[in-house]
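Pasting two entries for a bug report.
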Amino acid sequence: MIRMCAALLAVAGSMAQAQTLDFPSNANLQTEVVRDADSYVMPRGIWDRGEMPTQTVEGRVTQQVWRIAAASLTTLQLVRPLREQLRNDRYQIIFECQTEACGGFDFRFSVETLPPPDMRINIGDFRFLAAQRIGADGPEYLTLMASRTTSAGFVQITHVGPMAEAPEPIAQANEPPLRAFGAAPDATLADQLDDVGRAVLADLTFETGSARLADAEFASLQALAAYLAAFPSRTVALVGHTDSSGTLEANIALSKRRAASVLERLVSTYNVNRAQLAAEGMGYLAPIASNLQEAGREANRRVEVIVTSTED
């Protein structure tokens, strides 16, 4: 009886060791990198005042990037089902954060990630999660870095665990397809803000190389003004973006000036309450298309509006 119980416990331990994250069926494995007997510097806290708490973990390091083919996804949509799968598989979530709460630019570039085009990280919208558990053969560690473009979501998995002769697959794609919360490509600006929290002000035009907004009426600004008047307690950020021509510093400055021009137009012409508005600039750090083609560069030169309220 004792031997039988021991055997059952060993089987249970080996079953617990095997975890496979289930991605939606519209996800594709972009790349996988496996490093035997290596180490990984795992973030355990936010970037703050020039420092970020980390833990160096050792073992077989496996990194995968999955691309989920669906427009207007949110990073919460990407991470939430994976987080629940990890919890159900006895992982303890030790750290989780989103974008600015992580430490923004500094945090993102302090985390080991695989390069584009396989992994794409929107510097203005990402989530990070770190987890650990004690498996049958020792400790295991797993991190997720999730981000998105307008056309797809991206998730990088980094798993560090014991050396195994026949390791279980890290992830597969058998779940139902993942779609956006409901904003269709032709949805109104108000619907996009309510459903996915953001929208591109696609009809705006600026003088070339300038932050001066053209002297014209813009339907997107009229729609945004109506939205903010209908919800006077809501706040939004206007975020300017550029293509990759020129230096980062110059592009961040230009993109923020353009966002500020839009803010001033909303206040002066459309009577929007200034307290509902903020203006920021990302430069070329959050492209939605390739900068290798003119069409892509044109798409990247844009101003977006993002809902910043956390309550109705």
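Entry 2 (this is the one that rendered wrong in the viewer):
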Amino acid sequence: MDIQWYPGHMAKAKRLLAEKIKLVDTAVVVTDARAPLSTFNPDIPKLLSGKSFIVLLNKADLADEEMTALWERHYKEKYGNALSFSAIKSHRRALIGAINAASLEAVRKYAAKGMKKTVRALVCGVPNAGKSAVINRLIGKNSAATADKPGVTKGLQWLKVMDGLELLDSPGLLWPKIESEDASENLAIVGCIRQEITDTVALSLALIEKLKKTAPGALRERYGAKGGDPRDVLEQICANRGFLVKNGGIDFERGARTLLNEFRGGRLGRITLESPHICEEQ
């Protein structure tokens, strides 16, 4: 599936963000740990103009633990800083420590002049990766709007975490042309692309195909699906759940929505859709 989504507000937000970069010392680039490559915006490093940043593997509680460790190591080797995190379960201490470590050079420059530095960190990433939830975890209260859909944060805003640390919240940003169909599917599957522009049934079939490789027992365990091609599997899910239309036919749309929602909610288990090995193959 070739899915593209780059509405006007993203282009505007990217321009505004480029103007604010000079005000920040570091950045937290939030990705979804279930698709760490697909949810890493390739435009971000260039946008940051050489500033240090932390690749945050958010929603790690929903991803395969061993695979998250591999991705954390991959991003540390590539960019210097990476951290697995759950905005729901992780303590903020580790992330605050990572932000302070990434900003240490700027803090030392101010200290050499006898001045105390307030660290300013940008929080950025693709839509619905959990940026606002991460910010709220750091602050300890709901200062940033959150919802389980992309496109909630529309503008830039400064938020204070504590004395000496401020965050710049930003809208979710995709890039103008997603070259890889696999990446666009993964973005849509984890909920980073607006649902209204996707074909729900086709997307669920793509997820079934991916699960054959990444979590082959998940569909049997959750739905009693015995296998076959993706459409056969979706039909089995619908039949086992009783998803039928009035004439007795299969309600594929309802089955597709259920599968996608339950995957996103972690009900199929802790699953990661891609391995760091694909970076070596590219």
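Dev reply: Rendering is fixed now. As a check, the viewer should reflect this: The chain has a mean pLDDT of 93.
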